[in-house]
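Fold it.
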Amino acid sequence: MARRARRREPRAHWILFGLALVLLLLLLLVSGITSGQLGEKQHAPLSQPSSVKVPASITDGGPIVNASQPGAAGLRVPARHVVLTFDDGPSEWTPKVLDVLERYHVNATFFVIGSHVAERPDLLRRMLDDGDEVGNHTFTHVNLANVPDWRLRLELDQTQLTIAAATGHTTDLLRPPYSSTVDADVGSDWASLARMSGYRVVYTNMDTEDWKRPGVARIVASGTPAGTSGAVVMMHDGGGNRSQTVAALSRLILELKARGYSFDTVTQAIGAPSSWRPASSAQRFRGELVIRTIQLSDTVVTALRNAFLALAVLAALRTLALLVFARRHALTGTPGTPGPGNDDAPFLPPVSVVVPAYNEELGIGPAVRSLVASDYPELEVIVVDDGSTDGTAATVAAMNLPGVRLITQQNAGKPGALNTGIAAARHDVLVLVDGDTVFEPDAMRELVAPLADARVGAVSGNTKVGNRKGLLGRWQHIEYVIGFNLDRRMFDVLQCMPTVPGAIGAFRRDVLEAIGGVSDDTLAEDTDLTMAVCRGGWRVVYAPDARAWTEAPATLGQLWRQRYRWCYGTMQAMWKHRRAVIEPGASGKLGRRGLPYLLAFQVLLPLLAPLIDVAALYSIVFLPTPTIAYVWLGFLGLQYVAATYAFVLDKEPLAPLWSLVLQQFVYRQLMYLVVIQSVSSALYGVRLRWQKLRRTGNLDAAPAEVVR
């Protein structure tokens, strides 16, 4: 329509959006790796050639092996000495284990997971202060026999860095995940041992298998050496509920002390220097970066999960509310419309139809002919050619239809064209129609009927997508039936209708005069006009049987431009009418019901919608039980329920609903990108010109009698 001064819109928001998305994906990747769900799908040792044998010196030796000398027998713990070791921490159970050790003045060795250290570095500082030792248990608890050299070095080095950042030291102790006694080693374990050079690899003599939670007595029995034998005892302070471990630890310490046992760390037991090694400044700095990154990734994942669940609940509640209100609307009907068995005479006042048109050469003919062919008794049609540069005016003049007037003017924009037509109209009931809209024969009767109720100032009709062939057309058809018309039924029941569509709407002349006509303050003049009607104290209702057919955008580019204008204009109208929130009466219903709904579900929810997709993807890729993905599928099922009911209400065939699931992967993303750009434009204060869609005149889905 009319051209407006337009400031160049900065592209910084897209750059920021792209950077934020990349950062989010990187943090999720970090979280996925540190959760141990990426990179290794098989914990059991890989099959090895039969030529790979574990030397007898290893299988028959002690549990403490020098990886720099893989063929040498391991060292044993002296008689009446026990080394208590704990794997998979630190966790929320580690402080309880440390409390027990302090109570009995016992030191132990903790084999820590690097990603867990990043979450609880304070516990490692406590271990250092208490005189305990720390060993490397990899960064993500992978089976080192199953990973390539680069992954093995990464696992061990990153764990060392987190230990360095937490304590200022590193360690030369290592326990490979999924290891147990030395004689349980298989070929793959032996083959990987040489890659752990520089570490003392600590196996166990006695595996309590406390991770199975067999009971306190069983854990104590499994950790008690026979006779006076020395032993390395394996327990766990992480990886699950360790209440049995904590309870068993006290009993085990008391029983072994009663038998004359001493408790050592690994290096104390073999008479070696302490495993704590001073870390360099570079190691501490890099470790701090690792810890901060992991903490940030954990925070992001937690926030993402919570946001997803909150948004899912909100969206589900909205869908359920739409179904409830749609059912109520279907049962109670529209005010002013005679119900079944009502013999009252129909309300058929004279009507003036105003059709603003700008470059509508292809669509104006079918639109005007459908209006003239209406079964309405007294009707005038006013076509306002708003400075078209094509043959719009000539097409209307050539038809020479009775009851049709053509007004031409210089381009003034759609609001200006509407006001011109309203001023020229002879009747007090005005129907405002877009230049590409085709009416069904009885649509005018259905549209005007609710105005029989003096409280009703405007009526919204039911806009149908006429060009449904192709995936994009089906998606818009589904959106119109579900998103627009279910919403309008709810708004009608709640008496807070925010938009009478420009394609088909009826108004009282005195209402339009009272609010000052059609304003050009916003890009969504239909929403602005409707909100003004509500604030003036009149009801705005929805007539679902007043059907008109329109041509929806046929390309993604056209759809983007249309929805960009709609979204931006709606936000302008919401801001313009924001005082309705504190006003009484009908205005307050709009302000306290309609505006919050629009803000929540047409602005804020689409802005946060990318989180839904990212969270679902993260769940599928990284989590062993993709709960978020199940929630997403559940919500999709609820959408199908709502869609089916909406289609039944609109008497539409259900066949197009097969494409609803595909709509979630392209169309919805396009819509929330539109909202992002619209919000950015609002923040920048950009002034936009009217976007004119290129028409094809294709209304293949409309009934033949409508488009003939």
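The first strand starts at residue 64 and ends at 66.
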